[in-house]
C-alpha cells in the first residue's frame, strides 16, 4: 500500500508540473508535409514555403519527409516563423548545383552578393525567426573536379534570430554564408575546403563538426575554415565555436581575415592534424592585424598545438573569452521563444 501511495503521489506531482514543462518554447500553429512521392501536402519544399502567408507571426512547421529534393529553396523576408524539419540530416537532403560567375578576387572584394554569389546557394533564408532541424543542405557543383573550384553555396543565412539543430551543410568553396544577424548552430555538420563558413554574422556554433574535404593532391596548399568579415570596431559580429571538432583531409587554416576586424573564437574544440601550424592567415587585413581577433582557448588534439601560430593571434584567458562563449553573445531571450 505504501508503494502504491508513493507512486500515486509521484504521478500527482508530475501532473502539477506538466503545464510548466509543456509550455517551454513556442507552439506550432500548423504542419505542412512535403513528400517527394506525393504522399504529403506538396512534392516540393518551395511550394510549402509559398503557402505560408506574408507577414506570418505564428510558427508553421514544414515537415520534409526522407529523400533527396533537387531544388533551390528560398525563405523570403516576408515569411517568418517557419520551422523546417527533416527526417534526419542523413535522410533528408536539399541539393542543387548552382555556382557563382566572376573572378574570386572581384567576388570577395565586392561583397558576398556580387555577381550572383548569393544566388548560387541551394538554400536561402532572408526572414527573421527561422528554425531548421534534422535536414541537410548541399551544393554539388564542386563535388568532382576541384581544380577550378568556384563559389557554390549550400546555404545563405541572412536574417536575425535563426537557429539550426542537427543540420548538415555540404559543399567545397563557400559552403555556408553565415552572412548577417544572430544565429545558433547546434550539433551541425559543416563540410568544405575554402572559406566554408564566411560572412559578417554573430553566431555560436556549439558541438559542431567541421570537416575539411581539401584533396590530398593540393600538397602544400591549404584551405580555410572561416572568412569573417567584420568591418568596423563598433559592428556586431563574430564566429564562436564551442566544443565540437575540426577534422578531415588535406591541410586547413582555422580562418583568414576578410576584413580588419574579423572575429573568430575556438573554445574547447578538438582539432586534428589537418590544422596547419600557423593556424591563421591575414588575407585582406594585410599588415593591419592589430584589430583582428582570432583566438583559441582550451582546445585539444594534435592540431591545437599553438607553438607555430602567427604572432598576431590573440591570447585570451578563460575569463576574457567568457563574453564570446556565453549564450548572451547572441541570445537576449529569442532562443527560448522558438518551438
Automatic annotation (TrEMBL):
Signal peptide (from-to): 1-24
Encoding gene (name): LOC123429501
Protein name listed in UniProt: pectinesterase
Keyword Signal belongs to the record: yes
Keyword Zinc: no
Swiss-Prot/TrEMBL GO biological process terms: cell wall modification; pectin catabolic process
Catalytic activity of the protein: [(1->4)-alpha-D-galacturonosyl methyl ester](n) + n H2O = [(1->4)-alpha-D-galacturonosyl](n) + n methanol + n H(+)
Organism: Hordeum vulgare subsp. vulgare (Domesticated barley)
SUPFAM superfamilies: Pectin lyase-like
GO molecular function: pectinesterase activity
Known pathway: Glycan metabolism; pectin degradation; 2-dehydro-3-deoxy-D-gluconate from pectin: step 1/5
Function: Acts in the modification of cell walls via demethylesterification of cell wall pectin.
Domain Pectinesterase catalytic: 32-331
EC number(s) recorded for this UniProt protein: 3.1.1.11
Chain coiled-coil ranges: none
UniProt record similarity statement: Belongs to the pectinesterase family.
Top EC class for this record: hydrolase
Swiss-Prot/TrEMBL keywords: Aspartyl esterase, Glycoprotein, Hydrolase, Signal
Family annotation (InterPro entries): Pectin_lyas_fold (IPR012334), Pectin_lyase_fold/virulence (IPR011050), Pectinesterase_cat (IPR000070)
